[in-house]
Amino acid sequence: MTFSRAGQSACLARSAVTAPDEPEQLQLKNAAAEIAESPLYIEDSFDLSIESLRSIATRYQRDVNVCFIAIDHLNLLRSASMMDEPSRGREVVEIVAQLKTLSRQINIPILLLSDVSRKVEDNKRKQLGVPRVTDIEYYNMVDQFADTILILYRAAYYAASEEERDALTGKAELFLCKSPGGNTGVAKLHYNSELLRFEETEPEA
Predict the structure, then answer these.
(1) pTM flag (> 0.85)
(2) 25 in a domain, yes or no?
(3) pLDDT of 137-192, one tens digit each?
(4) At 43, phi and psi to the nearest 5?
């Protein structure tokens, strides 16, 4: 996050240490200070239960008026009330249902990240494995409660050759698979590998 905010390559983290007064280091320090002062709260508990998350989110919303929650990711969440449930699918239903209820109760959006199935890499679809909404893990359970479903896609990741990968480097797409109004579509993006972030592209003429 610091490197992206400073506009510096993340490769600096693996390179030789530079002098503290060099421009790159100064930009990183300024970016780190800016992030440290921002109203950003991170809970890095591993294997967090949905019940604990509900308590944490409610407290933050009450005490500091948090206005957005991002969860990375679904597979790290558990439900204490479903620990003995043999089906992970039923546990996922309980988790996403509680997230939906929580979002409505505290009136803020919740972003839940998830994986797509590995079958995307092996499928017979010749569009370089473009994922479908049904490729999202536990799609049937998540779709019941999600207002919006988005998929980020980088074709270069699925390229079959170095030449193909080079030609596709930096190209990315954001698929809108579900929205409250029913609209769907795709937005072209640029993936900046040095800053590890997705950026908007200039509209085509």
Answers:
(1) no
(2) yes
(3) 899 999 999 999 999 999 898 888 899 999 999 999 999 999 999 999 999 999 99
(4) -110, 110
Phi, psi of 110 (to 5 degrees): -125, 125
Q: What share of the chain is helix, strand, coil (3-state, %, to 5)?
A: 45, 15, 40
Q: What is the pLDDT of residues 62-116, one digit of tens each?
A: 999 999 999 998 988 999 888 777 888 899 999 999 999 999 999 999 999 998 8
> Residue 158: helix, strand or coil by DSSP?
helix
Q: What is the C-alpha R_g of the chain?
A: 20
Q: Find the helix or strand (DSSP H, E) in which 50 lies.
A: helix 50-64
Across-strand partners of 150? Answer: 176
Within a domain: 123: no
Q: Which of 176, 130, 177 is nearest to 156 (CA)?
A: 130
Question: Cα–Cα distance between 161 and 124 in angstroms, integer?
Answer: 16
- Tell me the one-letter amino acid at 178: K
In a domain, 102, yes or no: no
Domain containing 8: what range? Answer: 1-38
Domains contained in the chain, number: 1
